[in-house]
Amino acid sequence: MSDVDSREFTISTQEGVDLCLQFIEPLIHSTVLVADVLDDEQEAVSQRGVVIAALLYLFAKVSKDSEIKSRLVAKVLLCGVEIHVILATLRFREELIECRRALLPSYESDSEAESELDLDDDEGLSEHTGEFESEDTQWITEQVAKAWGLTKYRYFLQTSGQEYSFTAWSYRGIGNFVHAMITDEQHGVNVMPAAVSPFSWLFHIAAYAHYMIHSKDQQERLCGLEVLRVICDVCPNDKLTLDAERGRDENNDTSLSFRQQAASFRKRDWMSPLIQVITNAMVAFPEVNDRSSTLAVLKELVSKIAVTDRFWILRDLIIKCPYGNVAAVLVDFVRNDAVQSWSSSETNSQSPFKTTEICLLLQDTLTKSAERDLVLHADLVASCLSLVRFLYIRDKDNTTGIQTKTTNHGIRDVLTRISKRLQLKIEESTSGRSNADSQSVENDFTHLMILEASLSSTLELCN
């Protein structure tokens, strides 16, 4: 008998979640019934919020079992907490952390882990407590919660303190909940109230998609991409306006008041970091199918941005992108928009596709490419050349400055430098072909020869 008692019994995570659900399900029903008849609204909210916290904790542990996920989704929806409140959690925490950092000088160095998206679990967000549980931090929390209309739920949205350790809503759990909910045939995007703008849903859900795609786990990355694909499907094209103006000041001004700081944070560019994470995932995926599906999601997401804002966002990403093939994709987006702009009967003098801005983008991109490995950046150079030729042919009045002597001279000089380097690279590749029987060497040579033909035709046009 003692041998039996001393044995260790283990159960799988899925079995453990199922066991917890058997215990929680009756509690959910009783909590909902009690909360519905309570006169104290805050107490009712608190009871529902605690149950949501438990369910989200279970969601954070579930990985593959679709039946358990479906059960969990149904239970979360049964609790009576509005979906947008749950989805606002991560954006709320982002703003809360940034406002604390900006307004409390000593907060930055002690709380960096709070905003990291690659933490192993939610526990990292609660490491820094104690001295920051002061009147100042509580006041900031209350003000941010009030601005978001989440005052009743701030106990569950905290980033630190006893309440975080006990009942904070898990951002990982919410991410899994969102994925399970909107990809489920029974629920899908139809469970999200139509009264809320699709772009509002995109803004909130993108926060979870961002951290999922940022994950080192390939399956979680794919889930994040699927979440984005589904929510993008309900958003109209070319309508998402962002604060993406040329030359905007991105430096944080610590002298701003709380209201100014919060307003500044809400106008931040949240789209560029998301696109960067997607492109990083696209490069990292080993399978061609995964890279192709990631590119499809990227195209869908970019298509939602208003055309002018899209140009400014893509411009910055193109200049900073270290991957030639990825930057080439982004340049192709710009070229497609340029074609649409020049083909449209509507005249817009402020369109960046009809100003010197597009020429400056081409010159900067080609200048950087001229100093890099031409094999790795052949696609990028080719995409830029295609846009240069298009502008030369279509811009008869030289509104972009493409034919102005100074601009023309700058681009022509860069193309001449690229041409000289390209000839040397082709000679090296020719030698390499004779000394090696490698498919990659053959592919590189083919790429370079195609680029040479494209470059020659462009230089002829410039002369």
TrEMBL record:
Residues 112-124 have a biased composition (Acidic residues). InterPro entries: Glomulin/ALF4, YAP-bd/ALF4/Glomulin. One of its GO terms (molecular function) is ubiquitin-protein transferase inhibitor activity. GO terms for cellular component: cytoplasm. It holds the Pfam family Kinetochor_Ybp2. Residues 112-135 are annotated as: Disordered. This is Uncharacterized protein. It comes from Phytophthora nicotianae P10297. The lineage of its organism: Eukaryota, Sar, Stramenopiles, Oomycota, Peronosporomycetes.
